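Hey, quick one: can you model this chain's 3D structure?
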Amino acid sequence: MDYSGKSSPEEIRARFDADVERFSNLETGQAAAMDSALMLELLASVCRAVRPEARALLDIGCGAGNYTLRLLEALPAVRAVTAVDLSQPMLDRARERVLAARPGLAWEERRGDIRELDIGRERFDFAVAAAVLHHLRGEGEWRMVFRKIHDALKPGGAVWIADMVEHAHPPTQEIMWSRYGDYLASQRDEAYRDHVFAYIAKEDTPRPAVWQLDRLREAGFGQVDILHKNGPFALFGAYKI
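Sure thing. Here's the predicted structure for all 241 residues.
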């Protein structure tokens, strides 16, 4: 597939540098994503149930820090967070909010592309990737990033992905995309819907949730699970056995 017409990482970074406020509301989450606030709550609840003693988190594409903040509320034993993002203004806002919520936390920030960063081995109890992996392009990138996340997790750790997904069957994709368009128009108006659709077409290359679950298994994860799905948005993940 030809991705030459898609936004470069630098173009994506520039857009997010100028859009920090939209990603800084913990109550709504990312408003352009269906059920964003619900997925925040579900993820925090599951992490608390699975590994309440978790001490180290990895937030890939951390944005302004919403997912880390919700996980810190659910996981009082966390002592270290590594935040990855292309955008320095996003990292600045995430650092400000997270350290205000938990002073003394060991905060590590990595500005850059997860495809290029070394995030170590067996360091983290949980990794979260919210509204970020849809920027990956070819299948090789997806496989490489999933292996990297697998290696960075401690045994028994888990990765959770909250993201836009495609549907392999074209009529199903059309129905889900129409529902998403109705959702966006209800948030503001049809002009807002068209604006969001335009930057998705320029920036994003989502893959089906089932396809991603298969790639997670290939990367070495022993068990996969889906926590929520509504239209073209899903929350799913995998456990490192």
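One thing worth noting: The radius of gyration is 17 Å.
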